UniProtKB/TrEMBL annotation:
A biological process term (GO) from this entry: isocitrate metabolic process
Matching InterPro entries: IsoPropMal-DH-like_dom
Name of the protein: Isocitrate/isopropylmalate dehydrogenase
SMART domains cross-referenced by the UniProt entry: Iso_dh
Amino acid sequence: MTHRIAVIPGDGIGQEVTPAAVEVLDALDIEFDFVEGDAGDATKAETGEALPQDTRELARGADATLFGAAGETAADVILPLREVVGSFANVRPAVSYPGLDAVQPDTDLVFIRENTEGVYSGIESEIADGVTTLTRVITEDASRDIAEFGFEYAETNGYDDVTIAHKANVMRETDGLFLETAEAVAEERGAEYDTALMDALAMHLITHPEDYGVVICPNLAGDMLSDLAAGLVGGLGLLPSANVGSENALFEPVHGSAPDIAGEGVANPTAMILSAAMMLDHLGYGEDGDRVRDATEAVLDAGPRTPDLGGDASTEDVTAAIIERL
Ligand code: ATP
Ligand code: MG
């Protein structure tokens, strides 16, 4: 069976790390049909549109999408792309690696962030001069979907600790519903879980990340807590993410287009390659995903390393070393 993968490198280092991930995928014994699409600043300059219709269609029709980064036009590219794949769950692992400097070397966390509502519902208005409001939407359906996804993810990936993050003591209606729904899902599944107030959780994640595994969050909390955890393990160049929908999914590094180093050939390809490993898991090739993660981890430990990790290797050197270990 051939898997059709939409490859959208975008801008800046997206043009460098995306081909690196494709090279790694090509080294596996799986048949992929990679189809490249344009998006981002350069595309907008050329065509007037940051995300042309044919790129949208490409992502819609593919089995999965690999996306690099977009610069100024990021919001015009990634938000509609997430919509195209029907993404409701943003999966953001933050794992510390042996041999690398990290604030907390025992971190192995996965944030499962609700990706469609909460304070990012887009319902904002200026109701009078100098007075603005925002409507925070939480629905039972979306809360159920994200909780089901989070518990399933924990089970499939061997995480014992599942934490439901909320602030139901203050946002009684909205987070009350989120918490109640997620707890009901846990009980139906017979799954163990903890709940945590998101502010206290922010502190505990810094002092004792080893106490946590999968953290299921409403939208804004997931956005902030996962960035916090990114700081714990050190380095934007390391962090992958997945946007998973009911039928389709998009995989992208957490970092952006990094214009300061773009074109120099020294971008760290790790985040993008680990995003490709998440894509392998999603397509049912968990063992290959593990192989890619093991090879990447070994190279992070032994080198070569790119300058952001204190080395002097190029993107291509690191990619070749990972493929060699595969
Ligand atoms: P954008 O607007 O596209 O997000 P940015 O200027 O915010 O661009 P980021 O990509 O978010 O840049 O990166 C922030 C910093 O982290 C930059 O200094 C960048 O060089 C560095 N960085 C990000 N990703 C990588 C990577 N893969 N390898 C090396 N350095 C990186
Ligand atoms: Mg940025």
